[in-house]
């Protein structure tokens, strides 16, 4: 039975552990069902702790023996761990436990994936390996011996003794248990090296299953680029002689930053032109960087407790975004990040799952690896950098690294280094960490004689997490575009502190168009009542690439809402403005392709909901289709020319330049296919020598109902490649007509290669279904029922992935009573399942509100 009252943990109740761990030795005798783990842990009383209870976490462990200072000890065990009497002086705890990695389908702790052993210990997985104070503020050096009949036996740090079927590892850097890792299997290495800024040679290995060697080169280059970038930009050098990465097929998340032994979902590291799209390459480069950057922001300086998760995640996401901006195009990266933030973080922050960047309570920490903690956490750092300037930012970071190296730190520590280096009082800014909800900023404008007055009013809607939000510090970057299209005021940053604030700009010749929230300088909703003509002016002339894109986006949204609400025709001025941008060869093709993207259907549903109208997913879908038809017809004279002009004749490279061209050419292909059928798509499919071209052609053919043969060919070609087959599964759901989406997903679950235990495959089908707005919210309710059935099936196998997928239901309040009732029924049905996991129970209870 499920716990009658699941335990809630509170930030306010933090107390340090009663003991300090000096050193840990672990010995693993690997066996699929009976792995033995011996531990030897040196403890001493923590003089700074008041609570001296000796409690070691432990779950699903079979305790074989336990001693203190060599003498057997009587332990008291619960489902969560054990306690026993201990001396009031340093002592050595030794224990032996048995675990069953082959039956560990939750993929937390030590588990098996395709015959190889691997671990996932963040956040609280180490307790499934042995008894331990499994909390991030308990840091220790580790010695690990791995015995097993495998050619490769890995753990953190450096190998100190190697013989056949036996390797001993030593990690000299004290670390929390969540960074522990072990890998064993029949693996092959793609090896290289990197010489650090102080001249130390670091051996680099990317371990993969035999057969995947050809998919390693890109990841390795990305790793070396990340190591160099962190030295150049942050002055951070790698600190071991060895850095290993391992690719595993069964993994709940993208990757994990274990000290010296990063473990990656194979989808987040394996790449080749034939099997990976440009988007895959870019994501892989970013995740490699992210995990590597954690070595300083996360590992050398870790979190005191899990409430501080954004301390490492927000900062590391911010750093990986900076890296991608430097490696590729900064405006394209910024626009993509904002699209992603609005698609994933805004619905979270504006719905029943809203929580502060630093949450104040949780039942299951795995449910808080969210877009709010990660992406809003990164936005908060971006605002800090804007407020203190580049110099102030890097000074503060230098102090952070020197002052807190080796610490388990807090958000207070983080903000203090900024206060100490810049002299700024950040007490109000700190609300970004403690208040949930997306602030809305309304700007009203008046112009008289030569003076422009802008009145800003901020308001954050209250939520369960933050019932009484207070004004925040909001940096608003703004500029002015004159009537002749020239910039009359370069970007300035205005700081909002009060609920209402007035800005005056004088000596202007004629009313300029204000370009506000340039570069998306704060994660807010801006309410600005500009005319279509003003927006078209910004679309044509804004010098800020983000706001130029945003002007087009806003016009597209208005056009779509016009179609939805009264079948209005699309404004010609917008279409002409868009055409001017798309055909402007001086602009980056990737940027032009982004200009052609439309607001998502979910986004439109939210806009309608906020305006007090129940969105009709079918009408939104139809309007989007109409809009695309309009674009195809308005741009018809340019489509083929742009398609041809953006073909790449050089050998495939996944760089920004080539991928930008492919993305614009494929945007053209989709409009051409819409207007003319799948002939060109078929040609592209036949000629494609890379996955970007092949998959785009296939998607277009399916969309116009001409993809059946291609789908069969694709399956025949790629049936042995899991990662490509994930695309095959996902694409069919994504491209299904709304009424067929649930049935398509259901049919795919009957395919012999559908395996719900593999998170990538499960997400390929059900992630695609949840993202298919009109399909998921089809009036039949079939998709709700299908997803609920599969969540019930998956929960006892893999609670973490089940719980994450529950967020598909988080927007239920937007819809009409019939859909609301259908969703509520499914949510209640899942909640009524016997023995439902803590993860899923917490998510669904919060979603119910
Ligand atoms: N720290 C990793 C993400 C991660 C979190 C939890 C996991 O299992 C519960 C796995 C990975 C990162 O930010 O990349
Ligand atoms: Zn991370």
From TrEMBL:
Keywords: Aminopeptidase, Hydrolase, Metal-binding, Metalloprotease, Protease, Zinc. Residues 26-179 form the Aminopeptidase N-like N-terminal domain. Residues 218-432 form the Peptidase M1 membrane alanine aminopeptidase domain. Transmembrane segments: none annotated. CDD domains: M1_APN. Its EC number is 3.4.11.2. Its cofactor is Zn(2+). It comes from the Bacteria. It is an enzyme of class 3 (hydrolase). The keyword Lipoprotein does not apply. One of its GO terms (biological process) is proteolysis. Residues 437-529 form the Peptidase M1 alanyl aminopeptidase Ig-like fold domain. The keyword Hydrolase applies. It holds the Pfam family Peptidase_M1_N. Residues 532-847 form the Peptidase M1 alanyl aminopeptidase C-terminal domain. It catalyses: Release of an N-terminal amino acid, Xaa-|-Yaa- from a peptide, amide or arylamide. Xaa is preferably Ala, but may be most amino acids including Pro (slow action). When a terminal hydrophobic residue is followed by a prolyl residue, the two may be released as an intact Xaa-Pro dipeptide. One of its GO terms (molecular function) is metallopeptidase activity. Belongs to the peptidase M1 family. This is Aminopeptidase N. The gene is pepN.
């Amino acid at each position: 039975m499920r716990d009658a009252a699941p335990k809630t943990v509170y930030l306010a109740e933090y107390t340090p552990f009663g003991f300090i761990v000096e050193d840990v030795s672990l010995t693993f005798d690997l066996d699929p069902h009976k792995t033995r783990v011996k531990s030897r842990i040196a403890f001493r009383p923590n003089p700074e702790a008041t609570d001296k209870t000796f409690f070691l976490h432990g779950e699903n462990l079979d305790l074989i023996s336990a001693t203190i200072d060599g003498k057997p000890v009587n332990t008291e065990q619960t489902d969560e761990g054990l306690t026993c009497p201990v001396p009031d002086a340093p002592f050595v705890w030794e224990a032996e436990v048995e675990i069953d990695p082959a039956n560990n389908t939750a993929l937390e702790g030590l588990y098996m994936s395709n015959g190889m052993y691997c671990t996932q210990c963040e956040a609280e997985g180490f307790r499934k390996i042995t008894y331990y104070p499994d909390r991030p503020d308990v840091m220790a050096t580790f010695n690990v011996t791995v015995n097993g009949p495998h050619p490769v036996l890995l753990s953190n740090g450096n190998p100190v003794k190697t013989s056949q079927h036996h390797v001993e590892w030593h990690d000299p850097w004290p670390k929390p248990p969540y960074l522990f890792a072990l890998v064993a299997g029949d693996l092959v290495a793609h090896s290289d090296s990197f010489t650090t800024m102080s001249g130390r040679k670091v051996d680099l290995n990317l371990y993969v299953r035999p057969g995947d060697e050809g998919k390693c080169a890109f990841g390795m280059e990305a790793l070396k680029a990340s190591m160099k970038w962190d030295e150049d930009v942050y002055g951070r050098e790698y600190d071991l002689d060895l850095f290993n990465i391992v690719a595993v097929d069964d993994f709940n998340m993208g990757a994990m930053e274990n000290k010296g032994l990063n473990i990656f979902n194979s989808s987040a590291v394996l790449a080749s032109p034939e099997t990976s799209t440009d988007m895959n390459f870019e994501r892989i480069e970013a995740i490699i960087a992210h995990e590597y950057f954690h070595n300083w922001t996360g590992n050398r300086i870790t979190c005191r407790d899990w409430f501080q998760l954004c301390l490492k995640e927000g900062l590391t996401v911010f750093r990986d975004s900076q890296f991608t901006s430097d490696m590729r195009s900064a405006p394209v990266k910024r626009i993509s990040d904002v699209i992603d933030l609005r698609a994933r973080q805004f619905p979270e922050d504006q719905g029943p799952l809203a929580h502060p960047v630093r949450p104040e309570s949780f039942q299951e920490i795995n449910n808080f690896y969210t877009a709010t903690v990660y992406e809003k956490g990164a936005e908060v750092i971006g605002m800090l950098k804007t407020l203190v300037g580049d110099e102030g930012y890097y000074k503060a970071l230098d102090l952070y690294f020197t002052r807190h190296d080796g610490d388990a730190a807090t958000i207070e520590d983080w903000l203090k280094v900024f206060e100490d280096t810049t002299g700024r009082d950040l007490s109000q800014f700190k609300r970004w960490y403690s208040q949930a909800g997306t602030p809305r900023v309304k700007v009203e404008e008046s112009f008289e004689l030569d003076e422009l007055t802008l009145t800003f009013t901020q308001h954050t809607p209250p939520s369960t997490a933050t019932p009484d939000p207070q004004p925040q510090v909001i940096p608003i970057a703004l500029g002015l575009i004159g009537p002749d299209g020239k910039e009359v005021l370069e970007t300035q940053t205005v700081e909002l502190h009060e609920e209402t604030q007035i800005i005056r700009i004088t000596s202007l010749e004629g009313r300029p168009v204000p370009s506000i929230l340039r570069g998306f300088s704060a994660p807010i909703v801006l309410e600005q009542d500009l005319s279509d003509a003003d927006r078209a002016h910004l679309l044509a002339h804004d010098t800020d690439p983000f706001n130029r894109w945003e002007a087009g986006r806003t016009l597209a949204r208005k056009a779509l809402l016009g179609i939805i609400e009264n079948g209005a025709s699309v404004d010609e001025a917008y279409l002409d403005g868009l055409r001017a941008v798309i055909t402007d060869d001086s602009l980056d093709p990737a940027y032009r392709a982004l200009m052609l993207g439309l607001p998502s259907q979910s986004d439109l549903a939210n806009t309608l909901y906020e305006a007090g109208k129940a969105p009709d997913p079918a009408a939104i879908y139809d309007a989007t289709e109409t809009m695309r038809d309009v674009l195809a017809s308005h741009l018809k004279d340019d489509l083929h020319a742009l398609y041809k002009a953006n073909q790449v004749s050089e050998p495939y490279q996944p760089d920004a330049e080539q991928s930008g061209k492919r993305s614009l050419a494929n945007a053209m292909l989709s409009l051409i296919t819409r207007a003319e059928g799948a002939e060109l798509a078929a040609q592209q499919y036949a000629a494609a020598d890379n996955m970007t071209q092949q998959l785009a052609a296939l998607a277009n053919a399916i969309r116009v109902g001409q993809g059946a043969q291609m789908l069969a060919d694709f399956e025949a070609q790629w049936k042995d490649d899991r990662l490509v087959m994930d695309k095959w599964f996902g694409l069919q759901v994504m491209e299904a007509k709304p009424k067929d989406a649930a049935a398509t997903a259901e049919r795919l679950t009957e395919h012999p290669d559908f395996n719900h235990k593999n998170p990538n495959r499960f997400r390929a089908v059900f992630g695609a279904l949840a993202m298919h707005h009109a399909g998921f919210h089809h009036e039949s309710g079939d998709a709700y029922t299908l997803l609920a059935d599969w969540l019930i099936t998956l929960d006892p196998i893999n609670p973490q992935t089940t719980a994450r997928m529950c967020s598909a239901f988080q927007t239920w309040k937007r819809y009409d009573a019939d859909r609301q009732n259908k969703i509520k029924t499914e949510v209640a049905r899942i909640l009524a399942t016997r023995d439902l996991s803590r993860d899923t129970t917490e998510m669904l209870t919060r979603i119910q509100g």
